[in-house]
Design a protein that fits this description.
Four copies of one chain form a homotetramer. The first copy, chain A, has 295 residues and is of the alpha/beta class. Helices cover 40% and strands 20% of the residues of chain A. Chain A is built from eleven helices and 13 strands. In chain A, the strands form four sheets. The first copy, chain A, has a four-stranded mixed sheet, with no helix packed on it. In chain A, β12 and β13 form a beta hairpin. The longest helix of chain A is centred in the middle third of the chain and has 23 residues. β13 of chain A pairs antiparallel with β13 of chain B.
Chain lengths: 295, 295, 295, 295
């Protein structure tokens, strides 16, 4: 994805500025138009704050139009007709382009139920979610009243916009839109960080298939060189993190039973704060292990 | 299954004695015949010892005949033709009556490879195994030389016999043929045993489907009223033990994230000593847990 | 100490019965006299229940006399003049016969303050306490009003009596006056119970010197042959339990740093339920350990 | 202590250079003289390497003179006569200026035994030790042969010199002479770092009195703002780290027993690598805790 510097945005002509930011809010360049006068912005935080201010000051009808400018989630017909590049990428990130026919139909039913109750599409910031957590979110929000859902939709729209802005604009400051999921393996049999442990992170799915999110190996510090998930929100949902400790201890010549009592250790946990820093370490011997939510 | 007391066996007529014990060793009543004279036996241990002695003293050809008297494992044709009640029950215990066609064919290939190399059927004490561990055992034994496999077959036959004898004869002493798998949940958030935790034990399978072995709930002592597996060998293999801690803490009103960080905790481990006592406890808070191989 | 069977008590003459039980309640044989008619008792529980009933039915003055029949705790003059054998043994159990002059004076001040406020001696069931917890109990009770302290004194008197009765009378049933403190060491480096670990239990004291309560070695099951404290209440107070793990791992040839990272591991904890079963296990490798309040 | 930059040392006159570094090796300015020609040095590492090279190239007699230029450890007469500022500071760091008469005599006996065997003083880099570990080191080295002790003395002298150089010279690079001891408290009852926990680090002594090395409180990240020991070697020896968890949980309103099962938790461990990074964390609930050697 192309990025643009905040400096360039500050010095650009008005039309150029609006063109660059016109789709930060889906099909709603009026927001960029409104804030163009406020330049120069000291940081992307200030820019984003101005854009949110424009929405808050906008008349009700315009806010509603903003909501209605969004596509349905996982709608086949809309996908065929073409989404904005941003929407397409967001829906793809959560696998909404790879649904089975049955899953497409489920989403269609949900979208229709929501739209027929509220008169506007169900909007959620897909990058903060797994498919399961979207369905859970949907089920929680459907009973809301229209005022609550209007407000909630605008919040989700701002989350979507913040992530789009974060990807597009390079500045000295950053919007607080990134989470992190990390691990660490300590071999308490030898009292050392466990290097060379195969680690796999799987996103578990009630709906559709589970999928591998990261597959890596611990380094000499017992950590992974990169966070398992980083530089983006950690999608809400269930995960399984597995550690190949049987092979690790075998390679080190440590006595184990045959087959080893512990081979691939699974840790299952849920993520509930996509912007949080979640650390899930493993303390392990061939005969015992422990884990905890660290930070 | 009918049982008979050791006292009755000691006082029975010779024919009656042989009839009762004739199939402790598959299709080989000569072993019971040989030991009938040794009565009375002080215990089932002494009885079994006498039967093993009869085998050790038997000429080579008779020992080989004993081996050949056993059916192939998981052989469709032999099943159709009829197994002894004992063999049928043993093969059923490990699910060899419920194989897919592909699995039957795999076993057939194994049996044929083994029989063509050694001239006698592959014998293993099925009650001490899962299907996966049988295949693993098979692969390890196939490269052996005939002398080693003859010896090994007799050992497996004695294990089979010991289990049959244990089930058939009621005595004051017991043969050491039973293992035990148990668990215990300690809630280290409240410092109390965790009562009412849903526990499920699954036998994991590389070959065929995993299956639930036990499904229970912890009692006020944090234990299960019965061992997860007891009164029989704990089959070698891989297991997953799951604990429904999310619901447990929710019922107690303990603050958790939404969804709970930990919901159903899986512990995966292997059993390698079917007659051993394996204790796999869980120490748990809503944010951490530990397990270890206890005793 | 002499014991007498409940059967003998049931069949004894009235005077003999009263003589045997006359000092279960300090200097108050009238309680035994009152219950003698209620014989035979089915168990010691029923006997004790009858004795408590006699106190409850007694007029206020008699109950007050029962309270006043007790000696001061740790009073030098009274010790010199002679305590009942029971009181002497109870005070000795908690070390009240081995106080420094300063400590005697502290107890004297406490006793006087209490007696001048309430008009009767401060009574506590010494066998359920350490010296520190007695002082703590004293400080908590001094602000009470006379009615509350009268009631509380009778409760303590019944606790004293229950322990005396438990020691004196042999019956099929037992009064629930015993607690237990136990430990277990699991070597999670080898996945086995840790045998041969030197274990020491120290009662920690703010007042006076700490003292060793038990010194033992773990058996092949990683436990101690006898509970660290058993067959009596576990006195309220602070304890330190130490485990000689450095020597243990050295004897097994396990690689450690020099000097070993862990040598004698101390666990410090408090006991608050003298009749409870407290289990304080240790899970240990040369580089890590964990403990928890078990049951 | 005054520091001088490497830049200034590189550009200083020869005499000034020698004056500045003359006592890096005790009373042995000839080493600085020899390396003065090698300037400029790219870093303090290169400078120190040159100084060690000068020693290696020096004739045997000069190396022996270097050894003999060192004072006895904890020698009263020598202290009275005056040590170099560096020696004084080093001996003071480990408490050798505060010994009891009995301890002084013990050191005198050791020094004399060593000197009468080898003909030169016992030298050890005091900043890397506690008093206990010095005595242990002494006992291990006394049986050595003279060649081994000559070599070992030069190694200790180089360690002393490296620490003196590190303190004196400011450069972009650093000599690897610093260790670190740190901790971290994770409250696994709430799943959060434990803030506000009182932490105390005590150096345990067999010889003389134990002493508090650090006393601090955990910050919002569950860590201490500064390492417990940092910016210097972590002296070899035994330590006790205590954590005031009883007060912490009480302040948070968490249900505990009365008195709390866990109040001040002690962790006892030994340091064996003064230049290593040792992390000793605590995972804790009111009813359980765990620790391990981390990194």
């Amino acid at each position: 994805m192309m990025t643009i510097t905040l400096t360039d945005l500050n010095s650009a002509g008005r039309d150029e500025f609006v063109a660059a930011l016109g789709n930060i809010f889906e099909h709603s360049p009026w927001i960029a138009e409104q804030v163009a006068m406020g330049r120069p912005f000291a940081g992307v935080t200030q820019l984003f704050s101005a854009m949110k201010g424009a929405i808050e000051r906008a008349p009700v009808e315009l806010r509603l139009a903003l909501i209605k400018a969004h596509p349905d989630l996982a709608d086949k017909a809309q996908r065929a007709a073409g989404l904005t590049a941003e929407s397409d990428s967001e829906q793809t990130s959560v696998g909404l382009d790879r649904l089975s026919d049955a899953e497409y139909e489920a989403f269609e039913r949900f979208n229709n139920a929501y739209r027929s109750k509220f008169g506007f599409p169900y909007i959620v910031c897909a990058r903060r979610h797994t498919r399961d957590s979207i369905l859970r979110d949907f089920e929680r929000r459907l009973p809301n009243d229209p005022a609550a859902e209007t407000q909630r939709s605008l919040e989700e729209i701002c989350r979507i916009a913040a992530l789009r802005l974060d990807q597009l604009v390079a500045a000295d400051d950053r919007l607080p839109v990134h989470g992190r999921l990390s691990t660490h393996v300590l071999d308490t049999h030898s009292g050392m960080p466990a290097a060379g442990i195969a680690v796999e992170l799987i996103e578990l799915a009630d709906l559709g298939a589970s999928r591998v999110v990261a597959r890596t190996t611990t380094n000499s510090d017992g950590r992974t060189d990169q966070p398992l998930i980083g530089g983006r929100p950690v999608p809400s949902g269930k995960y399984e993190l597995t550690f190949g400790v049987g092979v690790y201890f075998a390679m080190r010549g440590v006595a184990q039973s045959d087959p080893p009592f512990l081979d691939r250790i699974p840790l299952r946990f849920s993520v509930s704060e996509p912007e949080g820093h979640l650390h899930v370490p493993l303390l392990v011997t061939p005969w015992s292990y422990a884990t905890y939510r660290g930070s």
